[in-house]
Amino acid sequence: MLIEFSVVPLGTGPSVGDSVAKVLTIVKESGLPYKINPMGTVVEGQWNDLMKLVKKCHAAVLKDCERVLTNIKVDDRKGKTKRIDLKVKSVERRLGTTLRK
Amino acid sequence: MLIEFSVVPLGTGPSVGDSVAKVLTIVKESGLPYKINPMGTVVEGQWNDLMKLVKKCHAAVLKDCERVLTNIKVDDRKGKTKRIDLKVKSVERRLGTTLRK
Amino acid sequence: MLIEFSVVPLGTGPSVGDSVAKVLTIVKESGLPYKINPMGTVVEGQWNDLMKLVKKCHAAVLKDCERVLTNIKVDDRKGKTKRIDLKVKSVERRLGTTLRK
Amino acid sequence: MLIEFSVVPLGTGPSVGDSVAKVLTIVKESGLPYKINPMGTVVEGQWNDLMKLVKKCHAAVLKDCERVLTNIKVDDRKGKTKRIDLKVKSVERRLGTTLRK
Question: Per-residue pLDDT tens for D49-75?
């Protein structure tokens, strides 16, 4: 399954770059396939591995502030894997063009 | 911490009432404090209990369809509990009025 | 159609009660049917009215801080109205029980 | 400001590729800077232009089905532009490494 998630600290100023850097370090260390975009991080895997990863990121950001908002969007389709690459490719094939990533 | 979540089956028609009924049955059985609203269900608890609950709901809905989209929004504030009631009350107190729930 | 939305200021401390109070004041003044819950506000109406309302709330919160995150979830079903009340009632009817709101 | 959005038709089967193709065609025609990812589309612009675009996409998908769920996440930071490229670059600079996109 695919998830997209974001972790936002409240009460630490308008820049959340430190938190995002912390989160991406943890995501890379997980070894799971991921893709970063300007609004979140997409990761592919099994439910337990993915939620363990998000929990770790959430806890790391909460360590340095009082309140954290975390969003998780799950897209789970039976019998489909490698969707982190194939979903966008499938749209490009339909449109007969490449899209900006 | 508080979460709001929703579980949406794809490919089963425009009405998702069966899925929502299944989810709410599981939520009630969990014994965790919850509140339903027209767009999702809010539950209060600890990370592991909450994610176990959402996983169970997600799996129950996926049983009868091919694809499920689940959204989870986490609001985690250090040292605060009973926020499922207190957050709205605090807004009402500020405004000096009751709000529709 | 129904929307649920939330407006979060960044860089103003862990408590966002002032912003929520501002948002709810604007929502009430709009005259549109609404329901507040611990994680957001649900409003029913037409696209243009709803987005005008959210824009006004977003702008009001941005006035006092440097960065705002706003989430909007739209549920639009053809030929259906008064869903702000009917959706939850329909789940209760299916389950033969009342649910906490 | 940046938005990430997704438009999901209900009641048309588990594959929503036709809808995504429709949405991306409209996004490309808008001329606004965009980036697609496996879970949504990020676009940069002003509130009115962005919401007009999302409305058009939402309406196009609703034309062929009975119910549509649209999610919009707004990130608005005063005095900042070109964030569609700069946000990810800033994380890479902090980490001293390139990330998968």
Answer: 999 999 999 999 999 999 999 999 999
Q: Give A33-89 pLDDT, tens digit per residue.
A: 999 999 999 999 999 999 999 999 999 999 999 999 999 999 999 999 999 999 999
State pLDDT tens for residues C38-63.
Answer: 999 999 999 999 999 999 999 999 99
Query: What is the ipTM, given to two decimal places?
Result: 0.96
Stretch (H or E) spanning D92: helix D83-95
CA distance A65 to chain C (A): 8
Residue of A nearest to C12 (CA): A11
Residue B4 C-alpha, separation from nearest chain C C-alpha, in angstroms = 7
- Whole-prediction pTM value? 0.97
Contact A42, D38 (CB under 8 A): yes
pLDDT in tens, A4-18: 999 999 988 777 889
> Rounded distance, CA B9 to CA B74, Å?
21
Q: What token pair was written down for C8?
A: 């979060």
Identity of the residue in D18, D39, D90 whose CB atom sits nearest the CB atom of A17: D90
Contact C20 B91 (CB under 8 A): yes
Cα D35 from Cα D16, distance rounded (Å): 19
Chain B: closest CA distance from residue D47 (Å): 24
User: Searching chain A, which residue's CA lies closest to the CA of residue C11?
Assistant: A13
